[in-house]
Structures are given as structure tokens and as C-alpha cells.
Amino acid sequence: MAPNNPECPEQAAPQQRGDLILVYKIINGLEKGLRFEDMFQCHLSPHLHGHTMKLRTKMSKLNLRSEFFTQRVIQQWNNLPQSVVEATSLQMYKQRLDNYMRPLSSLQV
User: Fold this and answer.
1) HEC-encoded secondary structure of 34-95
2) pTM, rounded to two decimals
């Protein structure tokens, strides 16, 4: 694909894609030195819509905290479909994530 093609998810939202890949790696223990317990909390409510691996934000009085990686990615992660988050390998996750993001990136043009 062309470098500036809006249908290419890698070009449409590179930070979002990279953030979501890093979250997957942290959750699945694939990122050395970053432990899930140190960065995120599971949302354990049985009444949630969507996938079963939802993350929860920690409340903060500071606006600055909302820009931290751990806070920035939670809503993006929680909005992913079950088929994406349940991928059994990093390669499968990236492929499913790209397929999910492709239609979304065309809406942002």
C-alpha cells in the first residue's frame, strides 16, 4: 500500500495501533519488564458489554494523568471486539486489529 493511503491502518492511527499492540503484549506477558499488575486493573463486573478482558481506570484529580499511556489506552482497549482481544498469538492479534481498524480509519478521512 502507498505510504499515505488512508485505508492503511498503520498510517491512519500509528500511535493508537502501537498502543494497542503494547497493551496486548503486556497483558500476555510478552513485554519484558512491564507487568500487567503494575500498569492496569481488570474490570471484574459481569454486567459489561463487549469482551471479557476489560480494563479499569484509576480515578485521578489531575488532568495530566489522563495523558499517561495506561489511562490513554483503556477506552481504546475496552472498545475492541472479543475476536481481537482473544487472539492466541501476537501475529494473529495484529492481523485482527488491522482488520478491525481498517473500516474505522476510513471514517476519519
Assistant:
1) CCHHHHCEECCCCCCCCCCCCEECCCCCCCHHHHCHHHHCHHHHHCCCHHHHCCCCHHHHHH
2) 0.74
Cell of 61: 484529580
* Phi/psi at 56 (5° precision): -120, 145
Q: Rounded to 5 degrees, what angle do the CA atoms 25, 5, 81 make?
A: 40
Q: How many CB atoms lie within 10 A of CB 31?
A: 16
Q: Give CA torsion, residues 34, 52, 62, 60, to 10 deg.
A: -100
Dump pLDDT digits (tens) for 41-88. Answer: 887 666 666 777 889 866 666 665 556 888 889 999 999 999 999 999
Q: Tell me: pLDDT of 91 over 90.
A: yes
